[in-house]
UniProtKB/TrEMBL annotation:
GO terms for cellular component: membrane. It comes from Pluralibacter gergoviae (Enterobacter gergoviae). One of its GO terms (molecular function) is transferase activity. InterPro entries: Bacterial_PTS_sugar_comp (IPR051471), PTS_EIIA_man-typ (IPR004701), PTS_EIIA_man-typ_sf (IPR036662). Pfam families: EIIA-man (PF03610). This is PTS sugar transporter subunit IIA.
Length: 146
């Protein structure tokens, strides 16, 4: 089963998790991280790192964030590069998560990423999809040295 870390500004993450659990019952390997005003980036990183390790059963973890570029998205993006089968999604909603919930048990992290973006491509994206639009920066020196 894929782990879920729902990370949003203010209380949105806990609200989403509470709504999901009210509708579907307790969710294993799922944590909410609320990034509150005045919280340091270091504290956010520590909370998200703990959540990553708590939710990972070996199949991977999906970071579900509200907005690209916000602190939870940036922190998850940095963490995802250090862990295999870790995806970062932005633009989530309750309806989208409710639709994707059953797929946590059957899809790989990469297939899950593609499926969730396909459901609402106008509002949802992933770190991987963003990187495909904007390839990594390469120094000219590195190009000519090859």
């Amino acid at each position: 089963m894929l782990g879920w870390v729902i990370a949003c500004r203010d209380e949105c993450a806990q609200v989403l998790l509470d709504k999901l659990e009210n509708a579907f019952g307790p969710l294993a390997r799922c944590r909410a991280i609320n990034f509150r005003r005045g919280m340091s980036s270091n504290m956010l990183s520590r909370m998200m790192c703990d959540a990553l390790h708590d939710t990972d059963a070996g199949e991977g973890v999906i970071f579900l964030t509200d907005k690209s570029g916000e602190a939870p998205y940036r922190t998850a993006s940095l963490m995802s590069h250090k862990h295999s089968h870790c995806e970062v999604i932005s633009g989530i909603s309750y309806e989208l998560l409710a639709q994707m919930l059953p797929l946590r048990e059957s899809l790989s992290s990469e297939a899950f990423r593609n499926a969730i973006v396909a459901l609402d491509a106008d509002n949802v994206s992933s770190l991987w999809h963003q990187q495909q639009k904007n390839p990594p920066f390469v120094l000219l020196h590195d190009l000519y040295a090859s």
